[in-house]
Amino acid sequence: MRFDAIAFDLDGTLYPNLRLYLAAFPRMARKARRFFAFNAARHALRARGAVFPRETDAPRDRPSFRAAEAALVASRLGIGEDCAAAFIDRDFYDELEGLFARVRPYRGLKSALRELAGAGLRLALLSDLPPKRKLDLMGLSEFFEVALCSEDTGFLKPAAEPFAMLASSLGLPPERILYVGNSSRIDAAGAKAAGMSAALISLRKSPVADLVFRDWRKLVAFALD
């Protein structure tokens, strides 16, 4: 086989985003200003990951990442950083994760994961948001050898650090890993820049990905070729 491991993004990759949006809409409507501020902070941190001097002011771990995130949200909302950090933890790292009890994975995903693992491939996960509780609630934890969060590196995908953490955690060279995501710009581009192969679950063509699919059987066939 061309790969030793298959690693996956989580949000929008293991389940359709629409299912989470429908479950989260009532909360988003009540707290729209906070949601917009949080999303803006994440976009800013993702963009800064491409230009931060790594040896100076870049976040280096999850606490420093969370501090930078809270500072951006606080600045946007005109509130204190402690207040921003408190509602981020509550609204985005607690309540929102709880909604995954109502989110179902893509049809065909579990069968694909079983077939890949049965063929001897190691399965891993790398998400920009904490994945472990989500996987538990969706009944997917059993499939993954490691479940990693980009925040632990201080950076979000497509920065190099999260993908380097993934390869290191698996003890594999990047070229032996296939990364599966749903964003050409974030997942496929980041994986390819790190030396990995990339697959996308998408209806759109991608000039970056080695495979674009909607049927999980197509991913299995590609990985086991």
Structural account:
The protein has helices spanning 17-30, 32-48, 62-77, 81-98, 109-118, 132-138, 160-170, 184-193, 216-224; strands spanning 5-8, 122-127, 146-149, 177-181, 197-201, 211-213. The protein is α/β, with parallel strands linked by helices and 225 residues long. The protein folds into 2 domains: 5-15 and 106-224, HAD superfamily/HAD-like (Rossmann fold, 3-Layer(aba) Sandwich); 19-100, no CATH class. The chain has a 6-stranded parallel β-sheet, sandwiched between helices. Helix 3 (62-77) crosses helix 4 (81-98) and helix 5 (109-118) runs parallel beside helix 9.
Shape-level CATH architecture of the largest domain: 3-Layer(aba) Sandwich
The first-level CATH class name of the largest domain: Alpha Beta
The total strand number stands at: 6
Percentage of residues in strands: 5-15%
CATH superfamily of the largest domain: HAD superfamily/HAD-like
Q: What distance lies between the first and last C-alpha atoms, to the nearest angstrom? A: 6 Å
Mean pLDDT: 92
Number of helices: 9
Could you list the spans in which at least 5 consecutive residues all have pLDDT below 50? Answer: none
Q: Kindly identify the CATH topology of the largest domain.
A: Rossmann fold
Helix content: 40-55%
Largest sheet, strands/sense/barrel: 6 strands, parallel
Alpha carbon gyration radius = 17 Å
Number of domains as seen in the coordinates: 2
The arrangement of helices and strands along the chain is EHHHHHEHEHEHEEH
Features:
single chain, alpha/beta, Rossmann fold, 2 domains, 6-stranded parallel sheet, 9 helices
